[in-house]
Amino acid sequence: MENESYWQKTVKLPNYPKIEADCNYDIVIIGGGMSGITLAYRLNDSNFKVALIESDKLASKTTGHTTAKISYLHDVLYEDICSAYDKSKAKEYLDSNYEALQEIKNIIEINQIDCDFKENLAYIEAKDSENSKKIINQIKLFKSWGFDVVENITNDGYVSMGLYHQAIFHPLKYLKGILEKCDKIDIYENSLVTKKVIKDNEFYLEVNKKKVRAKKIVWMTRYPPNLQKGYFLRILQEKEHVIYRDGKRQKDSILNLTTNFSIRPVNENAVIEINKNFTRDQWHWYGQDSVPLRKIPYIGKINKNEFIAYGYNKWGMTLSHVASKLIYELLINNDSKFAALYDPHYGHYLHFYKDIIKLVKNNYHGMIKNRILVSKEVKLNCNQGKVVRYHGHLIAIYKDKQERVFYFSPYCPHLKCIIEFNDKDQIWHCPCHGSIFDCHGHLISGPATKQLKKYEKHES
């Protein structure tokens, strides 16, 4: 499957070179999505020598596959944060994302960026008892903070909450305008970081077999690579299909928490949906994001000179600006008013036991189940892949439409979970931590930093 979104089909960002020589920088930003590019924008006029490094093309992963809703109505996260921590943390989370939305508007206005920005009304809704109760509690929270809430509560259990002055835009048009202002930043594409070494308080990154030396590094990727030990225990990966529907009118943005159905307008005669019920012939793509088990994203310092930002829980348009501003302030002033809220080193995890159960199931699936329940049948249809037990060993096999057969190691290079094949998207997927490989074993997205090992043809 060609995983190209509406945004990617309608706007092409500038091309940038890959790293082909050793180089030195004060700050290296790793990850060329919304977070990394907006941090580069903030640092453009600083006194630092800065590089932005992307493993593929800029904004080609999570940012390129987003639904691009700019909103601080992040489902029922405020109720969750209030229940797990306290009301003050929930208000801080609101303040940071409210400020981010206003800042996006200001950036667009100051730089005269034509990115289809439009304010609209955003709703969350539910009909199941658990989510309905959370929405009702969250309505009370927002009213206590002085917000004008559009609410609807019916006798049959349907509940909805809406907020005015939320927004939609074209994220790649926005980033194209931002990139024009990054004229003092060295930007690299097709430059995957595969190794990190710390020596004499400096970082040495291996990129395209070259050495990149940096005084400070900032990881702004959807999922920290295996260079960040232990972070896979703090997040889930969730993958969703996004559908473009022409000829359908929609004014507001809506998220149904019961069904996970989501819809937002694109223009006067088209919408983008997250919907499980779609056909192969419809224009669709998949997106993947990381869900923090503590509910609050991990943004800030992980040691004196290393920073991180991830776990946006599908609300990356505002949170990417929260992250880039927070880390910019830490780099410049060594302080930020939201640093304590997003600090990566704390969390109440047991409160969100359902997500922990999902994490355990995902790892069980990849570490144990996929090793035991393995077919011995090697026969495949065209455009099909599977893991089989062959001569006592596990092997991943794929047959293309020309009936050519390809053989790979079934072990994800990240932490050796057993991969599985997704027929709909024509990809190999790691159920443990979300690494994705194309049908021929090439790495699409991490945390893995290597492609699947290829084998020579086996005798049948």
Overview of the molecule:
With 460 residues, the protein is α+β, with helices and mostly antiparallel strands. The chain has nine helices and 25 strands. The protein has helices at residues 6-10, 34-43, 77-84, 87-111, 129-144, 171-179, 316-333, 339-342, 353-372, and strands at residues 23-30, 50-53, 69-70, 118-126, 149-153, 159-168, 186-188, 193-199, 202-207, 210-219, 235-246, 253-256, 262-267, 270-274, 284-292, 298-303, 306-310, 384-390, 393-399, 405-408, 420-422, 427-429, 436-438, 443-445, 454-455. The strands form four sheets. Strands 3, 4, 5, 6, 11, 12, 13, 14 and 15 form a nine-stranded mixed beta sheet that branches. Strands 1, 2, 7, 8, 9, 10, 16 and 17 form an eight-stranded mixed beta sheet that branches. A four-stranded antiparallel beta sheet has the order 18-19-20-25, with no helix packed on it. Helix 2 (34-43) runs parallel beside helix 7, helix 3 (77-84) runs antiparallel to helix 4 (87-111) and helix 4 (87-111) crosses helix 7 (316-333). It is globular. It starts with 5 loop residues before the first helix and ends in a 5-residue tail after the last strand. The model has no long low-confidence stretch (mean pLDDT 90).
Detail the topology: elements first, then pairings.
Layout: H1 6-10, E1 23-30, H2 34-43, E2 50-53, E3 69-70, H3 77-84, H4 87-111, E4 118-126, H5 129-144, E5 149-153, E6 159-168, H6 171-179, E7 186-188, E8 193-199, E9 202-207, E10 210-219, E11 235-246, E12 253-256, E13 262-267, E14 270-274, E15 284-292, E16 298-303, E17 306-310, H7 316-333, H8 339-342, H9 353-372, E18 384-390, E19 393-399, E20 405-408, E21 420-422, E22 427-429, E23 436-438, E24 443-445, E25 454-455
Parallel strand pairs: 1-2, 1-10, 2-7, 4-12, 10-17
Antiparallel strand pairs: 3-6, 4-6, 5-6, 8-9, 9-10, 11-14, 11-15, 12-13, 13-14, 16-17, 18-19, 19-20, 20-25, 21-22, 22-23, 23-24
Helix pairs in contact: 2-6, 2-7, 3-4, 4-7
